[in-house]
Structures
1.
Amino acid sequence: MNKILILSIVLFGIFACSSDGNDDDPVIPIKVQASFVYTISTVDSHLLFLENTTSGDGFTSSWDYGLGGGNVNDAPGVDTVRYDTAGTYTIKLTVVKDGLTTTATKTIKVDATGICPNGLCSGGGSETLKSAATTFSVGTITRDSYIIAGGKHTETLKADFNNLTSEYQMKMDKMNPSLGKYDFSAGDVIVKFAQENSMNVHGHALIWHSSTPSWVENFAGTNAEFETMVENYITTTLNHFKGKVRSWDVVNEAFEDGTGHPLRNSIFRQKMGDDYIKKCFQFARNADPNVLLFYNDYNIASSSTKRAAIFALVDNLGSLIDGVGAQMHISYNEPSASSIQAVADGTVSRGKKLHFSELDIRANPNNDQTTLTTARADLQAAKFKEVVKIYNSIPLANKFALTTWGVRDNESWLIAFWKHIDWPLMFNEDYSKKPAYNAFLEGLK
Ligand code: 9MR
């Protein structure tokens, strides 16, 4: 009796659930799985091309680019999205078909140079020059126009550098264009950007024979009036930037290159005498006792006699000078490591700070290259590493900053100066990093 009842219930159930193929029966929805691929533009590494590769049809789809803008409709074809700011972004594709939703996500990384291929940013991911150089500042040059324009230049500054030097706008011809008239506007733009981004500013350069305005070259007054004018200029400039500029090159390139390296016979020397450098340092010290004062010059490594002349000046200045600026316009094959070391040793033994102030390394000093070959780029990188290693090995108390004279190869002053192609810096024209960049990081290890 119980068995018959159970069989009846089972049979009823089977018949009740069976389909007779009638069209009115509900269609079971087919789920489509969202999927997409992306490629980075080869022309502009900040551009990402997104392609929805979900198979099937009859679905709607939308993107969340991870930029905080929420979902946007997936337009037909490839979507192009721009990622300007360094960071990590999760891109999400949402596909809806017949009320069923699926998603696909991918995460991309962006650094100062753009979207990192395969999520691998060069320089070991998040490591940048300034984050790796924990015991000294990493500097470079800039201009007010570059800062105002923003974009990749300022992104790169923010990512890698924390010590800014004005390439030419904090020199006398720009800051003091006529008697009693001052223009600090470009310096102010650089200072503001530096303050907003926790960077230092290095003032370059108060007195330089090569950027002396013509009204100073043709000064009509007495020597005493000339000296007062120079004192006023230094005092006014240092007062304006007091507390905003960490350091100044007080005098730049005062020595001749020839035998004996005499002082250049600049208008300053003619009017103020052989001790004009000391006077200028004293004016600066009087105006701002806290700012760091440097003497800056080139060929300090390559010429032992020039080095000797410069160190004699440093000795003569005594406590008026805080540091030596060694410009470091060098080549991939010279000067030797021991010559560079001699600059470090001479500065350290005098208890002064060392600024490798204008580092660029010519990859093509003999104009025998039309493109930067891998072999030459590697040799150049090795020299960058050597320079950084030497700098990083000096005692902490003598460290100050290592400044490259430019960001991108194509912006270097060297190309116009030598009138042929070269690639002396750490970034390519598209701001991608050269082997020299990683070599800089390696030099710190
Ligand atoms: O790179 C600078 C270039 O843009 C300027 O026109 C020039 C004159 O102001 O100065 C260049 O920088 C020099 C620096 O101030 C001192 N050492 C040599 C640098 C290259 O000439």
Note: The first helix runs from residue 2 to 17.
2.
Amino acid sequence: MQHNEVIMGPPAVLHKVAREIQEYQSFTPEEIHERTVQAKELLGNRLVILGHNYQRDEVIEFSDFQGDSLKLARISSELPDREYIVFCGVSFMAETADILSSSDQAVVLPDLAAGCSMADMADLEHVEMVWDSLRTLLPVEELVMPVVYVNSAADLKAFCGKHGGITCTSSNAQAVFRWAFERREKILFFPDEHLGRYTAKSVGLQESDLIVWDPYLPNGGHTPEAIRHATVLLWKGFCSVHLMFRPEHVRTFRSNYPDLQVIVHPECCEGVVEQADLVGSTELIIQTVSDAASGTVWAIGTELNLVNRLKRLQPDKKIFFLSPTVCQCSTMFRIDPIHLLWSLENLVDGHVVNRISVPADDKLWAGRALDRMMSVGC
Ligand code: 13P
Ligand code: SF4
């Protein structure tokens, strides 16, 4: 396989991409659709397009597989015959696909600006500083299991891999916490405080067992005694999309619709997950609502594209978006039909644009943390 890899960064390359994208903007939606169909046909089985459940309909339409982050990670490890994995999602998902796929497959993220603001809330420098602070207080390697949400950069997954730790997604966080507690007494969980709190409590812990670690304060803002006493240390990170859902929204919906069922993603705050009937990953939300009886009424607390698609595909149910304010994951939204077409047509011409390549050392160690997660199951 010949890859004409573009290394992003130098302004000249960015300008070239911007110029090319600008040309595509002059096409009509019909032209974009037609050309995408053609490019897919030309690439045939050399290509697989993966689409996260939050992608807009015009992108999902072209994805060969749709799913949550765990399902798509698994799929990316199971198709070694595809030369190109075009990942319609955000950068941490594409990095995970690159780690789990073979080295002669190229993972492409159609727009490199598709990141995740929560993933950016923890970086290696701060995580290493926390680990060093903990080392001054307790035998950290023996007692503390680092557990990183897949919504994180590859070097943080590698940090966990090196320190005996593990990754998790919203689908398997409880199983991963149990795995961790079978091996060490404490967990350092990053970067999502809310998923961490929900998971810790669902495996039987109390608020008094948890501390929230502010990476910008000495010792996370805690006394040495509080740190030694804590069972789970929760990084102070959050998803701004899921924090838009508030406990009062659940109360208002319930008072208006007595038969309503509320289903939310575990990145929502505690006041919301506590009142929900069901809490789970995007895939669990889709499965549950799709399998529900006709006529049932749902309020869903996760990204808008997913909720709108369910509404459209399940007109026999009453489906509401849980927040009165329209909130979308603006970075997921960066992947649009234009960027998808641009990346596919470049592949047709033999140019691999926007390739996501995790450095070899991070790939090795992050792979260990991901393999441990995959072996936990769920
Ligand atoms: P899922 O793994 O549930 O798809 O969630 C990913 C995510 O980023 C939620 O905001
Ligand atoms: Fe990240 Fe939140 Fe977007 Fe999910 S919804 S990708 S956690 S910013």
Note: The radius of gyration is 21 Å.
